[in-house]
TrEMBL record, chain A:
It comes from Jiulongibacter sediminis. It is a multi-pass membrane protein. InterPro entries: NADHpl_OxRdtase_5_subgr, ND/Mrp_TM, NU5C-like, Proton_antipo_N. This is NADH-quinone oxidoreductase subunit L. Residues 65-115 form the NADH-Ubiquinone oxidoreductase (complex I) chain 5 N-terminal domain. One of its GO terms (cellular component) is endomembrane system. The keyword Nucleotide-binding does not apply. One of its GO terms (biological process) is electron transport coupled proton transport.
From TrEMBL, chain B:
Belongs to the complex I subunit 4 family. It is found in: Endomembrane system; Membrane. It comes from Jiulongibacter sediminis. InterPro entries: NADH_Q_OxRdtase_chainM/4, NADH_UbQ_OxRdtase, ND/Mrp_TM. The chain crosses the membrane at residues 6-24, 33-53, 81-106, 118-137, 143-160, 172-194, 240-262, 274-298, 304-325, 332-351, 363-381, 401-429, 441-461, 482-503. GO terms for cellular component: endomembrane system; membrane. This is Oxidoreductase. Keywords: Membrane, Transmembrane, Transmembrane helix.
Length: 675, 524, 478
């Protein structure tokens, strides 16, 4: 089959899976749902392997979508090595996660929805991976975010879950806004969004291009949880744990890195420095926070953020392939770690606090073994896949910094190294807290259950031998034969790092071996609260935007406050609409005034004038009668007998009418004379 | 028969309106079926037109031309007003949208039981004038339909509306009338400046769109002649007239700060009328501005491009902030309309294919999505007669079908790709970015709108639909899920929104050539 | 002498319509004198006056129009006056029908006064001489005063007196102005004055002032600012068909005379006329906004409408005059229709208060729709001829402006049109209350009279039809 057909049928399968599962969500039994979903995934995986087998060289396949004037927007598939790597990776991990989920989500109320969302997610992720232009990259990018929203908030009855999903979507949206600006700027400069065409253009290094790269990077900041948008990822752990494994560890969060890899030709050196710095900062902040978490999943979440920081750092210095390599290895062991966390949580009946755990080594030895292997990979111990890829990252960044004239840039790899050491520390801490402490029982080796079986493929992928013949040299990795990885100098850095890492692990073991609870010091609080960044968003930024309003049925915990939106809204109703209403009122007033003036009755000055004229000793009313009566008699003689009625005519009325008339008339005359 | 399709679009509802008026009392409940049938026929005709339209040709199609009114101006000449209909790729999407939205309106108003005869009479008159607006190719005829929309709308809001309906109806009619007075001034001035070609001796003033768009037809020396330098208050009169159009159509669109009629009108109008108002009436503003404002004043429009874009961007951001602050779901959605229609102005200001196509697409998509949104509000209002967000929680558990529709509508409206809203917003923005006439700041700030729209929509979604089911105790009675009619309406519109989100060529193949031609004709 | 006499006789022969009206008047007076004062007699008198009106109208249509000066230049029979006369006769006929269908049982004298006004207006519409103008105008005025004051009720009388005093004041001003004009030019005929002014070297300001003063007469007839103050009181107090007549017929004459006077003085009147227009529209519109009584509202509306009528005179082009003529024709149908509507409403509710109209058209839907047509027309929205009328007069303004006219013209255009938007607020009060408000509980179950409704429908039809077929009136224009 052609690559295009393979890809399309693959995508269609998942979309169909989504549609079937959501439409017949009340009809299908749980088993049937599982089978259908896994079948689709398996078929997809086979198709993707066919794709690998049939791959010869890079291909761009374009299909008409929309034409506008001269420009044409196409559905384009970019099939290159990166594409099929990700294509397979996503489906591979998805398959394991689905299998894992069949047990984990058993008996859930909306299990069918869950699997349909997973299908939609895989569809979107695959779409993202194969998209050959920025438009479709963005389209699937957003869809992936949407699935993440659905899955994080899967247990929507829980407020914390929906809060987390909202936060995740909004943080991603902020990044996407930047991404969109970036797309606009790209289109403005090059009149195309096609990645292949763009890479062929020789972009000159100018400030607009730097801005373009940085705005595009905003997208990555959102999806890949980079500072300062990283706060959503730890919260995203509110979703079911398999979802965390798939989306928030292995695939979706890697999309940001993937994006940078796709557009690496746009990243100017200046932009690269900013990107690398942000990555380095993120990795240190997150690693530090991971050390102090008590929630088993949050440790992993911060760890993910930290590792993504490393990847971004590598992307910033231009080490694209290295970053992809680490992305690849990280996907396996981090997914594995999350699945272990899922199994642990399942074991402890949805308890997630590590302080209440311990001794799992005895009851679940297989899990412990798996954790050791994944943990070693995460910590970067030799013989693991992580050792290879992380060293590659650290070395390429170090060597880049060493080649720069600005010595300050050396801080970037330094931060990466610090983060890596911390990584080793929290891995050891977590292992100690979850598996070691506890009562002295015999280790009970039982047959592995479904959870543990699912881990096997991931375990295999976390050893060096799946990646390289030589356990100590990433340059010799199989990966490197597909994605050229440069030979790096200064291997001593890696070894030093390893030494520190081992030391840190030892420290962690000693520190947490016994202690179950401990008072929090300031530094620990800072770590636990992730430097208060999240707190700042939730308690300061959000209320500043939307205000703090009490829900109808709950006690108000926070004082009510007004946000920008409230201010704008009250401006709208009070000022803008107010002006309109005011005009209406004043128009009425004006019209009343005119009317009154017109009537001349209440016009005091006119009355006064009349009184002055009529004045002296005689009442106005009497004069009136006389005057009016006289006039009538003079002209028509009609009303001889109506003198009585005439007295009823209100005083001053006619005169004031006349006065008004004369005043206006005189004014007109004066005006005319002045012309 | 097929020669008069456009006329049928106008006169069928008009005729049906008369029939409804004359229905005897006993048949009064049947009037809704007449309206429904007419809406269906009109939709079918619109679809037929859409299918039969030759997207590769430029110029107007399905034309009908009859001389109509000749206003004798003595020694000035005569006004020749024609009954001139036709559609091109710019108006045809609007015709199709009108077909869809009016059918949605007709279906959703079937539950109206108070004075149905009068309701459907006005509804049919409204239908007629809406279609008339989009197919007229004579400025006078356009204006006639444009104005005539006001009356039925006034009564539909004023009689069948909510508590403050009278205030809202009066505000609506005065606002829009001020707008149309501005347009009238321009129409008058244009009509008197354009001589129909072929008549050389005594001028025959014409309102024919085709002639108005051609600078050659302007009588040399007239105020609107391109080279005219006549000023008023220090401004060239052409610019002043353009500003009048900007304000006139801006009120209808609505653009901030001319929007304050809209929240009131929307909130007070009954559901089906909100649907029509948001779904199609606002588009008349956009369409008119494009066809008349930009089409006949290209240079002025270009000079004012930053202002147009500014109005658009301010509307986007300002409308979104207002939406965030609302407690009333319907008001929230009303303000979201202000925000989303801002993209239309942004697209127009771009003066390129992407921008114009994007703006047209945005109008079309907003028609579908805002109809859906107002129907969503209608569902809840029908059940409890209360629209305050804080009175509801956890509806998702109790009403899954409803929630599904809401998710499509909300996400569509916040610009999720795969649903039509994205296409419109994306291309409007892309147009803005790639336009040489605009600072990149305009689209960049407009992009914030997509963040804010996520804030207000998803926040509302979270507050009302997620969590444990809870409804304020006074309203607890009947929170049942969608019935068949509601499901068909909501999911039908949702399916359309998704269809047009996935396959924009369906619409853009029709608009593209006309937009290109239009851009050429205004010298871009 | 012989020649003079034959000229007079010949002139008389060209006044067949006036002669007919005169004969009718005489016969009416005779009938009143000799018939008993019972209802049957009053019906006969009504019928006779209607026949006289209709016959005169047809006689008018048969008359060949020649632009000749008659009676030594005292009057001039032009196509313009021909059109005016036909409008007068149409409105007279409408009012007579109005009286009948609304079952007013008026004394015979009223018909004499009505026909008297029509008769005097015919002359006013032909006057080409200050003297004939004055005489005709005073004849109109006196008949009007009496029409207002005739039914001797206190408030009627009061209104009549107000009317009278303002009339008298403006007459005085007019006479004063006319004497100035005579003093400056030494001539009383319009043609003579015009000649005198163009050839002689007269003080421009003085002439303008004289003209302005002379205009007091026609402006009073038009109830245009600043001679408008009488209108609301008189409108409110006078029986509906009579005020309907007074709101229409004298305006025809006033408009004509205003035009003739402006034409006679060959200066640029744009500014002064614009100010009068703007003032009339402003005062009329804004005062109408707060009214609670429909008839008073119509009074203020009449002031504003006069402003719009005068718009056509800006620039003194024949096109503008035609526009004003068209406006006048439409105005007749709209206004008489509106008054008939109010009269019918009053029969139902015993009141002219808006608030008492609540929910009326929920009972009488068709009636409500017809009423709506008049209000839409008065506002000036399509598809009514009210729109066409406004469209035409403002076309004139734009033409004047774009032809290099004064900048104030654009103000008139914008301001005038914005005022149409404002005017919807008060015009729509009637449909607002009739449609939108719910009727009070204890509503008497009167039914509508079909003849009344038919007349109303015919008038509404005219308002609609003239939009679609403006040529029906335009072809009759001069």
């Amino acid at each position: 089959m052609q690559a295009a057909q393979l890809i399309f049928s693959n995508l269609t399968a998942y979309l169909l899976g989504f549609a079937l599962l959501i439409l017949f969500r009340n009809k299908l039994s749980e088993t049937l749902t599982n089978l259908l979903s896994i079948f689709i995934n398996l078929a997809g995986l086979i198709l993707s392997i066919l794709l690998i087998l049939g791959f010869q060289n890079d291909q761009v396949l374009r299909f008409d979508w929309v034409k506008m004037g001269q420009s044409s927007f196409e559905v384009s598939l970019l099939v290159n090595r990166l594409t099929i790597l990700m294509f397979t990776l996503v489906q591979f991990i998805a398959l394991l996660v689905q299998v894992f989920s069949t047990k984990y989500m058993k008996g859930e109320l909306r299990f069918s929805n869950y699997f349909s969302y997973l299908n939609l997610f895989v569809f979107s992720m695959l779409g993202l991976v194969v998209s050959g232009n920025l438009l479709f990259l963005f389209v699937f990018w957003e869809l992936v975010g949407f699935c993440s929203y659905l899955l994080i908030g899967f247990w929507f009855e829980k407020k914390s879950a929906t809060d987390a999903s909202l936060k995740a979507f909004l943080m991603n949206r902020i990044g996407d806004a930047g991404f969109l600006i970036g797309i606009g700027l790209v289109y403005f400069q090059f009149q195309t969004l096609d990645l292949t065409e763009l890479s062929a253009l020789n972009a000159t290094n100018n400030s607009l291009l730097t801005i373009t790269a940085l705005t595009l990077f905003c997208g990555c900041m959102g999806k890949s949880a980079q500072f300062p948008l990283q706060v959503w990822l730890p919260d995203a752990m509110e979703g079911p744990t398999p979802v965390s494994a798939l989306i928030h560890a292995a695939t979706m969060v890697a999309a940001g890195i993937f994006l940078l890899a796709r557009i690496d030709f746009i990243i100017t050196p200046d932009a690269g420095i900013v990107i690398a710095t942000i990555g380095a900062v993120t990795s240190v902040l997150a690693a530090y926070s991971a050390i102090f978490q008590f929630d088993i999943k949050k440790v992993l979440a911060y760890s993910t953020v930290s590792q993504l920081g490393l990847l971004v750092m590598a992307m910033g210095v231009g080490a694209t392939n290295v970053a992809i390599f680490h992305l690849f290895t990280h996907a396996f062991f981090k997914a594995g770690l999350f699945l272990i966390a899922g199994a642990v949580i399942h074991h402890f009946h949805h308890k997630q606090d590590m302080r209440e755990m311990g001794g799992l080594l005895k009851s679940k030895p297989w899990l412990a073994v798996a954790y050791i292997i994944f943990g070693a990979a995460l910590a970067g111990l030799p013989l693991s896949s992580g050792f290879l890829s992380k060293d590659a990252v650290i070395l390429s960044v170090y060597n880049w910094a060493a080649g720069q004239s600005n010595p300050l840039l050396m801080l970037i790899p330094l931060m990466g190294i610090v983060a890596s050491v911390m990584t080793a520390f929290y891995v050891a801490r977590q292992f100690t807290m979850v598996f070691l402490r506890g009562d002295d029982q015999k280790i009970q080796w039982k047959l592995p259950d479904l959870f543990e079986l699912t881990l096997i493929p991931l375990l295999l992928a976390s050893f060096w031998f799946m990646h390289s013949a030589n356990p100590l040299s990433f340059e010799d990795s199989y990966f490197s034969s597909w994605f050229a990885i440069e030979h790096q100098q200064n291997h001593w850095v890696a070894y030093t790092l390893l030494a520190f890492a081992v030391l840190a692990m030892l420290l962690a073991y000693l520190r947490f071996k016994k202690e179950k609870t401990f008072p929090l010091s300031l530094w620990q609080k800072i770590g636990l609260e992730h430097f208060g960044i999240d707190h700042f968003y939730v308690k300061k930024v959000a209320p500043a935007l939307v205000g703090n309003h009490c829900p109808a049925d709950e006690l108000c915990l926070e004082p009510e406050s007004k946000g920008i939106a409230d201010v704008v809204s009250s401006f709208d109703t009070k000022a803008l609409d107010g002006i309109v209403n005011e005009i209406g009122v004043s128009q009425k007033n004006l019209s009343k005034g005119l009317h009154n003036f017109d009537n001349g009755i209440v016009d005091g000055s006119v009355n006064l004038l009349i009184k002055g004229v009529i004045g002296l000793g005689k009442t106005g009313s009497f004069m009136d009668t006389k005057l009016v009566d006289g006039l009538i008699k003079f002209i028509s003689g009609l009303v001889e007998q109506t003198g009585k009625q005439l007295r009823k005519i209100q005083s001053g009325q006619i005169q004031s009418y006349l006065m008004v008339l004369i005043i206006i008339f005189v004014a007109l005359l004066i005006f005319l004379a002045s012309l | 028969m097929t020669d008069y399709l456009l006329s049928i679009l106008i006169f069928l509802p008009l005729l049906a309106g008369f029939i409804v008026v004359l229905l005897p009392k006993s048949l009064e409940p049947k009037s809704k079926f007449i309206a429904l049938a007419v809406s269906i026929i009109n939709l079918l005709i619109s679809i037929y037109l859409f299918r039969a339209f030759d997207g590769s040709a430029t110029g107007y199609q399905f034309m009908e031309q009859k001389p109509w009114i000749n206003l004798d101006l003595g020694n000035f000449g005569t006004f020749s007003i024609q009954y001139l209909l036709g559609v091109d790729g710019i108006s045809l999407p609007m015709v199709l949208l009108a077909g869809i939205v009016m059918l949605a309106g007709a279906v959703s108003s079937m539950s109206i039981d108070r004075r149905p005869k009068a309701f459907y009479t006005f509804f049919l008159l409204l239908t007629s004038s809406i279609f008339g607006c989009f197919v007229s190719l004579d400025f006078f005829l356009f204006f006639l339909f444009f104005e005539f929309m006001l009356l039925p709308m006034y009564f539909l809001i004023g009689i069948w509306g909510g508590e403050r309906r009278e205030y809202a109806a009066m505000k609506f009619i005065i606002y829009t009338l001020v707008g149309s007075v501005f347009i009238l001034v321009v129409m008058l001035a244009m009509g008197l400046s354009v001589n129909a070609p072929m008549n050389s001796e005594t001028p025959t003033f014409t309102f024919d769109f085709r002639h108005l768009a051609d600078a050659k037809n302007y009588i040399s020396g007239s105020v609107l002649d391109q080279s005219s330098s006549i000023e008023w208050l220090g401004w060239p009169v052409r610019s002043i007239l353009f500003i009048l159009l900007l304000v006139g159509f801006g009120i209808k669109l609505p653009a901030v700060p001319f929007h304050t009629w809209l929240p009131d009108a929307h909130v007070e109008a009954p559901t089906s009328i909100s649907v029509v108002l948001a779904g199609i009436l606002l588009k008349v503003g956009g369409y008119g501005f494009l066809r008349i404002g930009i089409g006949f004043f290209p240079e002025e429009a270009l000079n004012f491009a930053p202002w147009i874009a500014g109005l658009g961007v301010v509307s986007i951001i300002y409308g979104a902030f207002n939406a965030i602050a609302q407690d009333d779901l319907k008001k929230l959605i009303a303000y979201s309309s202000v925000s989303h229609m801002g993209f239309v102005f942004l697209g127009f200001a771009a003066f390129n294919n992407e921008g114009f196509n994007g703006a047209i697409y945005q109008m079309f998509s907003h028609g579908l999505l805002s109809s859906m949104l107002f129907l969503v509000v209608g569902v809840i209002y029908d059940r409890t007669h209360n629209r305050l967000i804080q009175n509801y929680r956890g509806l998702a558990g109790k009403m899954p079908l409803y929630t599904g529709a809401v998710i499509i509508a909300f996400f569509g409206s916040l610009g999720l790709p795969g649903i039509s809203g994205f296409i419109g917003e994306f291309f409007s923005l892309l147009g803005g970015f790639s336009s040489p006439h605009l600072s990149k700041w305009f689209p960049s700030i407009a992009v914030l709108g997509i963040v804010l729209s996520a804030v207000y929509l998803l926040w509302a979604l979270q507050r009302m639909f997620f969590g444990n089911f809870w409804v304020n105790r006074d309203l607890k009675d009947q929170m049942h899920d969608l019935n068949i009619k509601e499901s068909i309406l909501l999911y039908g519109l949702g399916a359309l929104a998704i269809l047009y989100g996935v396959w924009p060529a369906l619409l853009l193949d029709v608009t593209n050539k006309s937009v290109e031609f239009f851009l050429q004709s205004i010298g871009q | 002498m012989q020649q003079q006499l034959s000229h007079i006789l010949e002139s008389g022969s060209k006044l067949s319509v006036e002669l007919l009206l005169f004969a009718g008047l005489i016969s009416l007076i005779l009938l009143i004198s000799f018939l008993k004062k019972n209802e049957k007699a009053r019906n006969v008198i009504w019928l006779v006056s209607l026949i006289v009106t209709v016959v005169s109208f047809f006689a008018l249509t048969q008359t060949f129009v020649s632009d000749a000066l008659l009676f030594n230049g005292l009057i001039q029979n032009s196509s313009f006056s021909h059109f005016g006369k036909s409008l007068v006769l149409i409105s007279t006929a409408i009012i007579l029908l109005h009286i009948k269908v609304m079952k007013y049982d008026l004394e015979g004298e009223y018909y004499v006064l009505i026909l008297g006004i029509a008769f005097s207006l015919s002359f006013l519409l032909m006057s080409s001489h200050l003297l004939s103008m004055f005489v005709a105008m005073e004849a109109v005025s006196l008949s009007s005063y009496m029409l207002v004051a005739f039914r001797q009720k206190a408030h009627n009388l009061e209104a009549g007196i107000k009317y009278l005093i303002f009339g008298a004041t403006s007459t005085a001003l007019m006479l004063y102005g006319a004497s100035f004009l005579y003093g400056i030019t030494g001539s009383l005929s319009f043609a003579g004055i015009q000649q005198g002014l163009t050839s002689g070297t007269s003080d421009g300001n003085m002439v303008q002032i004289a003209l302005l003063m002379t205009l007091a007469g026609p402006l009073f007839k038009l109830s245009a600012a600043p001679f408008h103050i009488w209108a609301p009181d008189v409108y409110e107090a006078t029986p509906t068909p009579l005020i309907s007549y007074l709101a229409i017929a004298p305006k025809i004459g006033g408009l004509y005379i205003a035009f003739r006077l402006l034409e006679t003085v060959p200066y640029d009147h744009t500014i002064i006329l614009s100010i009068i227009i703007l003032l009339s529209i402003l005062i009329g519109n804004f005062s109408a906004l707060t009214q609670k009584n429909a008839k008073r509202m119509m009074g203020y509306s009449g002031i504003a409408q006069s402003g719009f009528l005068l718009v056509g005179l800006l620039g003194l082009e024949i096109t503008g005059l035609r526009a004003s003529g068209f406006y006048m024709a439409v105005y007749i149908f709209m206004t008489s229709g509106a008054f008939l509507l109010l009269d019918m409403v009053e029969k139902q509710t015993k009141s002219f208060q808006f608030s008492d109209m609540s929910g009326l058209s929920q009972k009488f839907v068709f009636f409500g729709i017809i009423g709506l047509i008049f209000m839409v027309g008065l506002t000036g929205l399509p598809p009514t001829a009210g729109f066409t009328a406004k469209f035409l007069v403002f076309t004139n303004v734009w033409e004047q402006y774009s032809g290099g006219g004064h900048k104030i013209l654009l103000w008139v255009l914008l301001f005038g049109l914005i005022n149409t938007a404002i005017s919807i607020y008060y015009y729509f009060k009637i449909p607002y209350f009739m449609f939108l408000k719910t009727p009070p509980e204890n509503k008497s179950e009167n039914s509508l009279n079909m003849t009344q409704l038919s007349l109303l429908t015919i008038l509404a039809f005219a308002v609609l039809a003239l939009f679609f077929a403006p040529q029906w009136v335009q072809n009759q224009l001069f």
